[in-house]
Amino acid sequence: MSSNVLMPKATAVWLIENTSLAFSQIADFCGLHPLEVQGIANEDVAKGIRGVDPIAGGFLSREEIAKGEASETYKLQPLEQKRIDLPQVKKKGARYTPIARRQDRPDAIAWFLKNHPEVPDSKVVKLIGTTKATIEQVRSRAHWNSSQIKPVDPVTIGLCSQIELDAVVAEAAAAKARADARNAKTQAKTLKSAQETVPAETYEQEPASSEET
Predict the structure, then answer these.
(1) Three-class HEC string of 29-92
(2) Closest by Cα among 153, 141, 161 to 115
């Protein structure tokens, strides 16, 4: 039995009503049992189901139906379904930057280094489509065009949107605040521990010197 049909019972209803095919032929094409097809014809099975035209659906041709009606032993051949190849989804990586804008990336990197050094290099890479190597070259002034690089807001040169930039800066600021809070807490504990370990006599005042007679 074939499993080519999407709605086998509805297709069987249509074939029973619109053709003179044998129940066995319809059953084989729709992937049903012959007794089930007979039950559909007698309205004992699938009562109330509206028939679906397999010709309109692209599952069967009129020529095949004619061949089946001419010979009860003929096995209906379903039409070959066209395969639809869906485009592959590329994994999200670094942002693609148009060639015309690539020369502006060092300026955007310089802007980050000057105004938001708290933003990790990895975030800058994804945001403006650069590389960690380029960031390091700009940072160390080893870039081939260092003399011409000047800090420029990446939004103004079209490397990212203001919303994307604000999100990255806000995330980096929050991370820095958490790190500063942890460091301050650690430093406070360290100072307290040092005071607790210093001998008490260290803090006693030296005896006052006797007055001259």
Answers:
(1) HHCCCHHHHHHHHCCCCCCCCCCCCCCCCCCCCHHHHHHHHHCCCCCCCCCCCCCCCCCCCCCC
(2) 153
Listed in sequence order, the residues at least 6 apart from 115 whose beta carbon sits closer than 8 Å to its beta carbon are 151
Does the model's pTM come out above 0.85?
A: no
Contact between residue 33 and residue 40 where contact means Cβ atoms under 8 Å apart: no
Cα 204 to Cα 9, 192, 194, 198: the distances in Å are: 100, 19, 17, 12
Closest CA to 111 of 174, 156, 144, 142: 156
pLDDT tens-place string over residues 71-129? 999 999 988 765 545 455 455 555 555 554 567 899 999 999 999 999 999 999 999 98
